[in-house]
UniProtKB/TrEMBL annotation:
SUPFAM superfamilies: P-loop containing nucleoside triphosphate hydrolases. Coiled coil: none annotated. InterPro entries: P-loop_NTPase (IPR027417), Sigma_54_int_dom_ATP-bd_1 (IPR025662). It comes from the Eukaryota. This is G domain-containing protein.
């Protein structure tokens, strides 16, 4: 059940999952796909039921015959979601989404994406906001870093995205980190060329800090956001994608399987105390504040 207003919450049994990723990686579609995969085991079931939308969004799809672009809107747009395609993070503020699974509650914590075109100052404020929001909870069970599977270059944003995210995490969080690849149908549900880039960054992190973040089949998950978009297109009465239904059905089944793997893996991890993350960032802030007066003292000496 995904009606978070009626869920009986218990801090001891809540499963808190933080979602982090570069702007445009598809966090919004991932979350909407998540709740629909919880309700519907197959795409046929989803087509017969109601479309579940937690985060409103707008996307464009072209008719394969006329190439006419059609804009599809899911949900009711609000101020927290920027639907314009202008390179800015779609999600403006952190927000939590709760799901009941058995006697446990899963909380997905969504925040602004990394790589916003408004600059590094805005990035820093986004991170401060995320850390402040997460501090409301005692622990995190999982930290999911969302990635595109077909990155071919170590762009500044890609490097900043991974290193900055990991820099804000306490060393104890390394085993709670999950790598989640979106839109992986195009790479045959494999990490693709991003694998090499990610290994380079994690190796650099290990050499610089001594922290070895695992990246293997156990903490890597392959999803396809396009199956949810296919569902949204069909729900608005468009029929031009129906000939590809079998392909999207396979994609839906794969995503259901991967969601199950992800939750099981996260439940196997030890809880990461949020206070450890706060202590690390408070120390970094103190060092930053002390750097100027220390420099002045050295100059005077």
């Amino acid at each position: 059940m995904a009606n978070y207003r009626r869920i009986q919450r218990s801090p001891e049994t809540d499963i808190n999952i933080l979602l982090l990723g570069e702007t445009g990686v598809g966090k919004t579609t991932f979350i909407n796909g998540f709740v629909n995969c919880l309700f519907y085991n197959t795409l046929d079931d989803a087509l017969k039921g109601d479309l579940k939308v937690l985060i409103p969004s707008v996307f464009a799809v072209a008719d394969s015959e006329t190439y006419q672009s059609i804009h599809v809107t899911v949900g009711t747009l609000n101020k927290n979601e920027n639907s314009e395609n202008n390179g800015q993070s779609s999600t403006q503020l952190c927000r939590s989404y709760l799901f009941q699974i058995g006697d446990r509650v899963i909380r997905l914590i969504d925040g602004p994406g990394v790589g916003d075109t408004r600059g590094m100052d805005h990035e820093a404020r986004n991170f401060e906001h995320i850390l402040s929001y997460v501090s409301n909870y005692e622990h995190l069970n999982g930290i999911c870093i969302l990635l595109k599977p077909a990155e071919t270059r170590l762009t500044i944003f890609f490097r900043y995205c991974i290193k900055e995210l990991l820099r804000h995490l306490h060393v104890n969080a390394k085993d709670n980190i999950m790598f989640v690849f979106t839109n992986s149908r195009a790479t045959f549900y494999r990490p693709g060329e991003t694998t090499t880039l990610l290994k380079v960054l994690l190796r650099e992190l290990h050499e610089k800090t001594g922290v070895e973040v695992p990246f293997n089949t156990q903490n890597t998950f392959m999803f396809d956001n396009e199956s949810f978009r296919f569902l949204a297109v069909c729900k608005q009465g468009h029929k031009f994608l129906h000939k590809d239904k079998n392909s999207y059905s396979d994609s839906w089944n794969k995503s259901v399987e991967q969601f199950s793997r992800l939750i099981i893996r996260i439940l196997q991890c030890d809880l990461h105390a949020v206070k450890d993350m706060q202590s690390l960032n408070e120390a970094q802030l103190l060092i930053h504040k002390l750097s100027r007066p220390i420099g002045e003292i050295v100059t005077l000496i």
